[in-house]
Design brief:
Layout: E1 10-13, E2 24-27, E3 45-48, H1 53-65, E4 74-77, H2 86-98
Parallel strand pairs: 3-4
Antiparallel strand pairs: 1-2
């Protein structure tokens, strides 16, 4: 649910869309910070980090939006498929160390 008063971002029902599959989409209010996670959200937030530049950027923006720490009820996860390059694993490990 988007709550402009608190600057939150989350799933929101879109007018004109039929309820059911695809009816809820993530929409940011124009005044909301795009990387700020609503502290009053009832949902647990998971940031999927792939080890690439764009997910590292996303994680960095979320951290900056919250004073350098992940907010409560939020985790950044990395799923090692066993096929990642050593450089990717080193990068993810470095991201993990720097975000603590």
């Amino acid at each position: 649910m988007v709550d402009a008063d608190r600057g939150g971002i989350g799933p929101v029902s879109v007018p004109g869309r039929q309820e059911g599959r695809g009816a809820n989409v993530g929409v940011a209010h124009p005044r909301a910070h795009p990387y700020r996670i609503d502290p009053g959200s009832p949902w647990y937030n998971v940031l999927n980090v792939s080890g690439g530049r764009s997910s590292a950027y996303m994680l960095g923006q979320v951290l900056m939006a919250h004073g350098g720490e992940l907010p409560d009820r939020c985790e950044a996860i990395f799923a090692n498929t066993g096929r990642e390059r050593a450089e990717t694993l080193d990068f993810v490990q470095g991201q993990s160390s720097s975000s603590r």
